[in-house]
Automatic annotation (TrEMBL):
Name of the protein described by the UniProt record: tubulin-glutamate carboxypeptidase
Region (Disordered): 291-347, 367-392, 428-458, 1134-1162
Protein species of origin: Patagioenas fasciata monilis
InterPro entries tied to this protein: ARM-like, ARM-type_fold, CBPC1/4, Cytosolic_carboxypeptidase, Pepdidase_M14_N, Peptidase_M14
Keywords (A to Z) from UniProt: Carboxypeptidase, Cytoplasm, Hydrolase, Metal-binding, Metalloprotease, Protease, Zinc
Any GO BP: proteolysis
Length: 1162
């Protein structure tokens, strides 16, 4: 905007404030109107910045005192005030300063007989009321009483005025003090009656905006407790529920249904969760009684805060949220700088020398190593049906998987594909099994064997008690496998369950599963050794039998229109029409007697197996169940992960499940994510796989809260419902449902066994050690993987142990099973015979902790360890007693640093529940300071930008990876995470957290698809490829390596190009999801009802003007829909040269045309 214009505007405004000449004022108003009618809201903001609001208010003060009111001045003035005021964040303050509330109010009172002026007053009143402070003042001074005089029962007369009054009232009721005042004066009942009246009489839906406005009033009024109680007392639930039923069939009525649904949900009487306590059913006595009671942290929770008059948020701080984010950034340069501080006596680091056997490179050892390998090799070769005992390159990085482009999806159909990757490792028959047993005895890899055997020695009884969950009764194979005698034997078995070895043996005879890198027997062997708090006696079938990725990945679920609304109304129906509500508890950890054989026609639930965590199931209606997840051990929160078994289902019936104690404010389940399901019958028919499943999925706040009586919980904490419907593929099947593809501790341990035994020992150096025992007594494995030295020559041995380190970890958060699948991909690639892997092994020594929180995974936790702590918030000062895996992982890293061998790359694999795609979080001083807007001279701080190289590479080579989603900011709240501590204290420049979505991708090859295990594993292998390229780019390489790389990566260039091409549109913003597709906000402080929408009032003003132009009010029945064609025609005509060529129009009508022009629909 030019300087001249600026000064011109200032002259206009100051003249407006000082002049008493009516013509001058009218002229200025018309110029202002003209000015603001063009362009966008930016002009209005400009006028505001130059003191426009103040000038208009002062002019109003002067004009309002004229007697009788001078309409020709007041009308344009009020219109300008309404338009400017709603965009002026400090308007409330300015109104107070000008003492204008009383003026507007008394002007409105005096205009009661003049509907046009009154309507104008009400617009300004509404704008003033939107500000909390002036709204409260208006309330005290009788604004609501005035409005109630204007708001009438159904009538076709003066609907514009009625509408303006209702909307002003709604704005006033945002103030809680006004809401309370309204309730005590009996207005709530009045509003309900008015709403009913308009609802019944407006049969042609001409006055949707009036009905919606009345609902908005009710919505705000019920934000206070007194309002909700009164609403219930006035039969509000019944009335709204019934009227909504009339509206459901008409899509035009959405604005009404949405708000009514919100009110219904909000007023649904609060109930405590139906559990005796929010604390986990399982507790674990901590060593040394370190923490009897874990503190109630609730960083991400949502809390009810109504009931008392709290300081209401000032709209002036609209961008508080983004500020908060920035406040979290670390701005202390000293804290950002690397500082090698030890959290323990230096002498303690010596113990970690033993965890680096690769550095003690004496000849003997490596020789004996190869000796050992030989025996191993023999054995591997003796394994049946293992045509290649070298691991194939599992998800070959050289062949980008194109099958995913094929969109023809068959959920349960047979597998057409599976061409690549057909290397069955084992196929089991009875005879072979015994051979296996022999070899098993020969197992001589020290740790694994010791681990596996020791637990059986310790507790022989226990290992025999582990049984497979009973199978579907009518499975076709069942009768073949189990003859009647067998069945008798089974039934007479003391435990009443199938004894594992028989079942397993018989089952495995039928196992067509050639599931790569999975062996049911290895799984059982490992599972027997697991120490769990519930002392598991059952194996979940999917973990035992294995999972094979489906041939096609599934697109993200398209959200059904109005699904949340329908579900919420269905929930409310429990209260209004309780006839079909059963309310029977069918599974209950707290009251196990309820879990006994279920009532006929009722599903049977179970989850007492590794990673299972169902606490309670309640049959609500015939085909609907409420489910409650158990909290993390020694905690009262972190409900997100779920994994349970369900059986006795009917065919082709959609069952609705509601997980009613979720805590996150929002979920990817609102954005296309599905849960996963595994059907035992499908598996036995040759399709053993977890599939994305469920429809009508949504996630919303419910009426349960953490009551004081529940103890241990945070009082007033709100819960959310995840609801989904499932049609099971078979009758009387046994199915498993989970939040995400399960990956148990036993899965991981048996996977390591298989990798170890199937690698090429001549090429792959592999050491599996135990980092430490967990609190629960489970070993936490530590792997060392690199290439065997080329020869025993000195040079080769030196090269061998001088390779830089890469340190990888996963699964510190037990609910993030996706991280384990990514790790699986990494491990399989690292030990594979792929030439790239071969080269990579020659470049690095990999130290890998594949599961940092075994106890959490085993016991079905989502976030914590047995101590109830988030282990990824303990890295600053981990306790050797409470957080042993973190303490020792950090110790090992510190040891490496102390010998000058800090890793080149550190990466901790995680899962992200709010975002799509895969991305990295890293650490950068400069980016953090810039983002925080710090005045520190960043030019002085030198920073190696090498931390950006790896993510840039991954963006090119990994289809699921998106550079735009990466962030390199160091937040204060993350100062105790592995990423930040390893960066700061161990001095690793490339210290990352890798986040993989639970949902799907928005970019590239997998755009629009949900990720499956195959894509996650691929990410793990592509990460390895990225490391190799990083090495070539960043480190000096031997000629030999370069030559080999050149040979191999030529191929890669091509892939890179191809990937780039397919991702070329990957420049989109990658923000978090918007708050929600449908508003799920039932918060008391919610303002998200579209009232803040400027265009609405603008349109109202404009419509009114077109009406002034000669129509009668009674004809304006299309109000609230769109600008009528007549109005448009009027606009068009007045913008014709004829009318424009004259001097500035002075009549209010013409002025209005200008102001209306801006917001007319294009
Ligand atoms: Zn995590």
């Amino acid at each position: 905007m030019a300087e001249q214009e600026a000064s011109g505007l200032q002259v206009l405004l100051s003249t407006l404030q000082s002049s008493h000449d009516k013509d001058v004022i009218l002229n200025i108003l018309s110029v202002l109107t003209d000015l603001l009618s063009l362009g966008t809201g930016r002009r209005i903001h400009y006028v505001i910045s130059k003191g426009g609001s103040e000038a208009l208010l002062q002019a109003l003060t002067a004009a309002a005192h004229t007697e009788p009111p001078d309409h020709s001045t007041l009308l344009p003035l009020l219109r300008l005030l309404a338009r400017v005021g709603q965009r002026d964040r400090k308007f409330g303050l300015k109104v107070q300063k000008a003492e204008a509330t009383d003026i507007i109010l008394s002007l409105a009172r005096r205009s009661l007989g003049y509907h046009l002026l009154l309507t104008h007053c009400l617009w300004v009143l509404r704008v003033c009321a939107s500000n909390v402070t002036s709204g409260a003042t208006l309330g005290v001074n009788g604004a609501m009483e005035l409005l109630f005089k204007v708001i009438t029962p159904y009538s076709k007369r003066h609907v514009r005025t009625v509408r303006a009054a209702i909307e002003a009232l709604a704005a006033l009721l945002k103030s809680k003090s006004n809401s309370r005042r309204a309730v005590t004066r009996g207005y709530l009942d009045g509003l309900l009656r008015l709403y009913q009246d308009w609802h019944h009489n407006d049969v042609s839906n001409n006055y949707i905006y009036i009905r919606r406005g009345l609902l908005l009033c009710l919505k705000h009024i019920t934000n206070v407790q007194l309002g909700r109680e009164t609403f219930l007392g006035c039969r509000g639930m019944d009335i709204l529920f019934t009227t909504v039923q009339d509206c459901l069939s008409c899509k035009n009525l959405d604005p009404i249904i949405t708000i009514a649904t919100q009110i219904l949900r909000k007023c649904y009487p609060k109930e405590p969760l139906p559990v005796p306590t929010a604390r986990s059913f399982y507790c674990f006595p901590l060593p040394g009684n370190a923490k009897a009671e874990s503190p109630c942290e609730g960083s991400e929770g949502d809390y009810e805060s109504d009931g008392d008059e709290e300081a209401e948020k000032n709209l002036d701080n609209e961008d508080a949220e983004s500020k908060e984010e920035d406040y979290d950034l670390e701005t202390d340069v000293n804290k950002l700088r690397s500082r090698p501080v030890l959290d323990r006596p230096e002498g303690e680091l010596g113990q970690y020398e033993a965890m680096c056997p690769e550095l003690a490179h004496n000849f003997q050892e490596i020789e004996s190593e190869s000796e050992k390998e030989k025996t191993l090799e023999d054995r591997t070769e003796s394994l049946p049906s293992a045509p290649s005992h070298f691991i194939p390159s599992a998800v070959s990085v050289k062949h980008p998987n194109c099958r995913w482009r094929n969109q023809s999806l068959t959920e349960m159909g047979p597998d057409p594909g599976q061409k690549d990757f057909q290397v069955p490792l084992q196929s089991w028959t009875k005879e072979e099994e015994s051979r296996w047993d022999q070899t098993d005895e020969k197992r001589d890899i020290a740790e694994t064997a010791r681990d596996a055997d020791s637990c059986e020695e310790e507790d022989p009884a226990r290992s025999h008690m582990l049984t497979l969950r009973p199978l579907p009764k009518d499975a076709a194979w069942y009768k073949k496998v189990f003859c009647s005698e067998c069945e008798a034997a089974i039934n007479s078995y003391p435990g009443g369950r199938l004894e594992s070895s028989d079942t397993v043996t018989n089952l495995l005879e039928k196992h067509q599963g050639d599931i790569p890198f999975h062996s049911p027997l290895f799984y059982i062997t490992r599972a027997k050794c697991v120490k769990s708090i519930p002392n598991y006696k059952d194996l979940a079938f999917p973990d035992f039998w294995g999972h094979q990725p489906p041939p096609f990945s599934k697109p993200m679920l398209e959200r059904k229109y109005g699904v949340q609304r329908d579900k919420v109304l269905d929930d409310v129906r429990r209260l209004i029409q309780p006839d079909d509500v059963i309310g029977r508890t069918v599974f209950d950890l707290d009251e196990p007697s309820h879990s006994s054989p279920a009532a006929p026609g009722c599903l049977t639930f179970f989850s007492k197996f590794e990673s299972g965590n169902l606490r309670k199931a309640i049959q609500v209606r015939e085909f609907e169940y409420d489910l409650i997840m158990n909290a993390d051990v020694n905690s009262n929160q972190h409900h997100q992960w779920f994994y349970f078994e369900v059986r006795d289902m009917k065919l082709a019936v959609p069952y609705r499940f509601n997980i009613i104690n979720c805590e996150k404010l929002n979920s990817q389940f609102n954005y296309g994510m599905q849960l996963v399901m595994y059907s035992v019958k499908e598996a036995l028919q040759g399709r053993p796989r977890w599939l994305r499943a469920g429809h009508d999925i949504c996630y919303y706040k419910n009426h349960y809260h953490c009551g004081a009586a529940a103890g241990g919980g945070v009082r007033g904490k709100c819960y959310y419902t995840l609801t989904f419907s499932i049609k099971f593929p078979h009758k009387d099947d046994v199915c498993y449902l989970a939040y995400h593809y399960p990956y148990t501790y036993s899965t991981m341990m048996s996977h390591l066994d298989i990798l170890e035994q199937n690698r090429n020992p001549k090429k792959v150096y592999w050491r599996q050690q135990t980092l430490c025992q967990t609190l629960g007594g489970n070993p936490c494995p530590l792997l060392t993987i690199t290439a065997m030295p080329d020869s025993k020559k000195r040079d080769d041995l030196e090269q061998f142990c001088n390779r830089p380190y890469v340190f990888l970890m996963a699964r510190v958060h037990p609910g993030e099973s996706n991280a384990s699948w990514v790790m699986k991909g990494t491990l399989e690639f690292l030990v594979s015979s792929d030439p790239i892997a071969d080269l990579l092994r020659k470049c690095f020594i990999f130290k890998i902790i594949p599961m940092l929180n075994p106890d959490g995974v085993i016991n079905g936790n989502h976030r914590c360890s047995l101590s109830g702590d988030d282990l990824n918030r303990q890295w600053l000062t981990p306790s050797s007693q409470l957080h042993p895996t973190i303490y020792h992982a950090k110790g090992l890293l510190c040891y490496l640093r102390s010998i000058g061998r800090a890793p080149l790359v550190f990466c901790d694999y995680h899962g992200h529940s709010q975002k799509k795609n895969v991305f990295l979080y890293g650490c950068s001083i400069k980016e953090t300071l810039w983002q925080a807007g710090c005045t520190v001279d960043t030019a002085v701080i030198t920073e190696d930008v090498g931390y950006r190289t790896l993510p840039k590479i991954l963006d090119k080579v990994a289809p699921a990876f998106v550079m735009n989603s990466c962030s390199f900011l160091v937040e204060k709240s993350r100062e105790s995470t592995a990423r930040v501590v390893v960066w700061k204290e161990v001095g690793v420049l490339r210290s990352y957290t890798m986040e993989s979505t639970y949902c799907g991708c928005t970019h590239g090859l997998y755009k629009g698809l949900q990720l499956g295990t195959q894509e996650l594993e691929e990410m793990g292998s592509k990460f390895c490829l990225g490391l190799l390229i990083l090495h070539l780019k960043s480190l000096p390489c031997s000629k030999e390596v370069m030559a080999q790389a050149a040979l191999l990566l030529d191929l890669e260039e091509e892939i890179t190009d191809r990937t780039q091409r397919s991702c070329s549109n990957s420049c989109l913003e990658t923000d978090d999801e918007p708050p929600c597709v449908e508003e799920l906000d039932y918060d008391t402080d919610s303002c998200s009802d579209g009232e803040g929408d400027f265009s609405e009032l603008d349109q109202e003003i404009q419509e009114c003007l077109s009406w002034v132009e000669g129509q009668t009010e009674d004809e304006g029945a299309t109000m609230g829909q769109t600008c009528s064609s007549k109005a448009l025609r009027g606009l068009y005509m007045s913008s014709q040269p004829g009318s424009k060529s004259t001097a500035l129009p002075l009549s209010p009508t013409a002025l209005g045309v200008y102001s209306g022009f801006e917001s007319s629909p294009a």
